[in-house]
Amino acid sequence: MVEGIINLTRKVLPRLTTNAKQNIASINSMPEMVLTKMARNGDKSILHTDMNQCTAAIIRKNGITTSYTDALHGCNSVGAVMKLNTGENLFVLSHYVPTNIEGQVNAVKTQLDTYAKHINTDQRPKLFFNIRGYDNNGKLEAVPNPIVDKIVELFSGIFKKGVDCTITPYQNGKRPAFFSSANIFQFSPTNPNKLKITNVGEQEKFIDLSI
Known about the structure:
This protein is of the alpha+beta class. 21% of the residues lie in helices and 33% in strands. Strand 6 and strand 7 (139-142) form a beta hairpin.
């Protein structure tokens, strides 16, 4: 675990039962529900991105350190983290329906244009795609998706050294009960270069942004 980052991942996915209270408790244990409750209770460190929306935040201690979107059922989630001239991290997250590739690219471009004067274009930003997958003989593979090439092209036109790109496909059909459909980015409040990503289905990965 990374210091300051709460663990949202459940070790065992709850099962649907005939006990209504137990089912409600299982719903409330979903990572997106935990974050939504925290935000509703006044936690200002959490930023939610709705469908067909793109948000941006400078990651700072005592500021926003968690950015997430949910209800990914065939939609494209694109996250991007890049350095500002101050050394701080700028994080952009978008969630769009797959039929609106142009809208998603333009929304991300708008955020980049907004912070253009402050972005360090000499470094390599990291791009994270959470997109629909398919079962290929027991292995989850990403469905070919034009959003990847379009976003990489956008960033490659700005950043001199190119980009680092991670594509994580997610299970879209035949989901069990209480399956998380969230894509969550948690930066450590004590060290913003430490990032934990929890993708749809609660797949975890840890990223060191100082490397």
